[in-house]
Amino acid sequence: MTTLSTSPKSEVLVELGQIVISTEASKQFTLAELFEVLRCHGSCDWGTIHGQELDWNDFAAKWGGELLSRYGTYDRGLVVITDNNITNVYTNNEY
Question: What is the tens place of the pLDDT at every residue in 50-93?
Fold first, then answer.
């Protein structure tokens, strides 16, 4: 899975807190792929989001709130959400 970002990185780093990975994500992706996605999300590389989602993430990374990242493709991709010190990882099909 390619995790190249189309969004600029923010200066703020994300505290991932407790990490919860869905059963489907753990079945479809290797541990290395999951760690890479979490590393990207944690360093404010939001993946392929744009527009209002990108604007919100930049605001929330600085002031607090839910953070959303998307990586990969629609058929084989992951969604990462951090809110209230919990980070959830889902497949695109689950989200």
Answer: 999 999 998 998 889 999 999 998 889 999 999 999 999 999 99
> Which of 1, 4, 26, 7 lies closest to 68, judged by CA?
7
Domain layout of the chain by residue ranges: 18-91
| pLDDT value of residue 75 | 86
Which pLDDT belongs to residue 6? Answer: 44
Residue/partner pairs of 88-91 with CB below 8 Å, 24 or more apart? 88/20, 88/21, 88/22, 89/19, 89/20, 89/21, 89/22, 89/25, 89/34, 89/37, 89/38, 90/22, 90/24, 90/25, 91/22, 91/24, 91/25, 91/28
